[in-house]
Design goal:
The complex is a heterodimer. Chain A is mostly beta strands. Chain A is built from no helices and eleven strands. Helices cover 0% and strands 50% of the residues of chain B. Chain B is globular, with a radius of gyration of 13 Å. Classes of the chains: A mainly beta, B mainly beta.
């Protein structure tokens, strides 16, 4: 049973607009959440993270929002750029430094 | 600049062959991981290690084995490759409490 779900396999957004990628989780023990970005034929690279004690974390054009009651987080990219086109993975772990659990990813296409 | 290295990047091999995928990191991280990923699917944890002489199996049933004799080195071995092993294999390392640094991956094709 998937503990981290990314229900949108793909998303297309125009350059300059906002991209919103969603992630749901089922394990209430998760306390740390991360987003990774992956280009074809490369390994994922860390993008941004959030602890369960926060509901928002911002880093430049990237903001992650966490809604613990809904077990939902989202990644906002504003403004979107063509170089943001990649697959975005949501990941989570629970306390004790257990290995990360990943979602299936969402392929973002930013159209110029 | 990559501090975690995987070799080979691409490998095509015949059924029944024994193969070892190499992973090395220069960051002194205690924790290392192997994930398997197919297109459109999540990364599945197959093995991990929290330090020298420590290895654990992940949640994906795997016919592979790993070893951790040195902190910086975490090779993955398939004793007898099968077409079902065709996938991308990703190695990662981390410090306690922070996210992972991934290698570039090995794309394995078993024919």
């Amino acid at each position: 049973d998937q503990q981290v779900k990314q229900n949108s396999p793909s998303l297309s957004v125009q350059e300059g607009r906002i991209s919103i990628l969603n992630c749901d989780y089922t394990n209430s023990m998760f306390d740390y959440f991360l987003w990774y970005k992956k280009y074809p034929a490369e390994g994922p690279t860390f993008l941004i993270s959030i602890s369960s004690i926060k509901d928002k974390n911002e880093d430049g054009r990237f903001t992650v929002f966490l809604n613990k009651s809904a077990k939902h987080l989202s990644l906002h990219i504003v403004p979107s750029q063509p170089g943001d086109s990649a697959v975005y993975f949501c990941a989570a772990r629970h306390s004790g430094n257990t290995p990360l659990v990943f979602g299936k990813g969402t392929r973002l296409s930013v159209i110029a | 600049e990559a501090d975690i290295y995987q070799t080979p990047r691409y490998l095509v091999i015949g059924t029944g062959k024994k193969i070892t995928l190499e992973c090395s990191q220069t960051m002194g991280h205690d924790k290392m991981y192997w994930y398997q990923q197919d297109p459109g699917m999540e990364l599945h944890l197959i093995h991990y290690s929290y330090g020298v002489n420590s290895t654990e199996k992940g949640d994906l049933s795997s016919e592979s084995t790993v070893s951790r004799i040195r902190t910086e080195h975490f090779p993955l071995t398939l004793e007898s490759a099968r077409p079902s092993h065709t996938s991308q294999y990703l190695c990662a390392s981390s410090e306690w409490g922070v996210g992972y640094t991934f290698g570039s991956g090995t794309r394995l094709t078993v024919v």
